[in-house]
What does this fold into?
Amino acid sequence: KKRVVSGVQPTGLVHLGNYLGAIKNWLSLQDLYETLFFIVDLHAITLPYEAPQLSKATRSTAAIYLACGIDSSKASIFVQSHVRAHVELMWLLSSSTPIGWLNRMIQFKEKSRKAGDENVGVALLTYPVLMASDILLYQSDLVPVGEDQTQHLELTREIAERVNNLYGGRKWKKMGGRGGSLFKVPEALIPPAGARVMSLTDGLSKMSKSAPSDQSRINLLDPKDVIMNKIKRCKTDSLPGLEFDNPERPECNNLLSIYQIITGKTKEEVVGECQNMNWGSFKTTLTDALIDHLQPIQIRYEEIMSDPGYLDDVLSEGAGKAAEIADITLNNVYQAMGFLRR
Ligand code: TYM
It folds into this structure.
């Protein structure tokens, strides 16, 4: 069975971009593959954050996975920091990762520019090495993520190949190992629609947790009236009718795409239904569809959060299963890299 891993950072609230770009696409994978979904709390400290909020956000994100339909009887759900091998492998990988590769990362450049020098810790630069560790530890085949993670996935592949070449194969055999590759080289799985959900206030920038205005995103847990208000006030244009793929109308394309994905309709169906609508009636249609889609998730979320024991059990079972797989890879890498084992 192929193995699939992915994760979300517990920073801020999970929004529609995280859901449509990632979590929603995990659902069908759990029936086909061996899946591991984690909450990447160690990544969440790479920018200034509120310590008292971290554990709450971690639990909340885990509850959102479950509420969205990730099933703990099929997938392993766990917290990244609960499986120590992530940080250990990261250190080993970092010795084979040229700084130049990290300096090239678009997200590093963007985030460090926004944060200002004082707030940029070393971990923001080495963040993608930790992400590579998250993926390579599990010998993953596929990594379902939104488009903004493609460069990090490419880097993960480069690190895997480099370490395989430096320490794998015959060299590993000489160290007493099995020989062959230390890591499987994984592939990104980017959804055909929803891979880049845009901001509600600017169709040219992506929906993000860190954007200052909450008005720019729909959070999965937004109550009905908040969703209504955000869609009512979102940016539109003054051209007649509605259409996909017109570069002059990024907001229009974004809102139609959101509508298409959450209703499960085809593009043609949405064109048929909406091309002659005015913004007022489309906004009502979209608001209703969003509320219909998100309300059941919100109800399940409340149920899960009201039973902390259940959530703890899920996370502890998930971490146990994950650690078993992770330790095998980690031990192999220590061996191949020549460490004295106790
Ligand atoms: P994070 O927490 O920023 O985002 C979680 C997932 O949501 C996707 N995403 C989007 N998709 C579509 N439109 C958007 N506007 C949008 N914004 C976010 C992201 O692509 C991602 O799939 N580094 C990762 C977390 C991570 C990870 C991993 C992922 C750490 N280790 C290992 C996969 C495998 C991140 O910061 O995602």
Notes: Strands lie at 3-8, 34-39, 75-79, 142-144, 187-189. The chain has a mean pLDDT of 97. The longest helix spans residues 308-336.
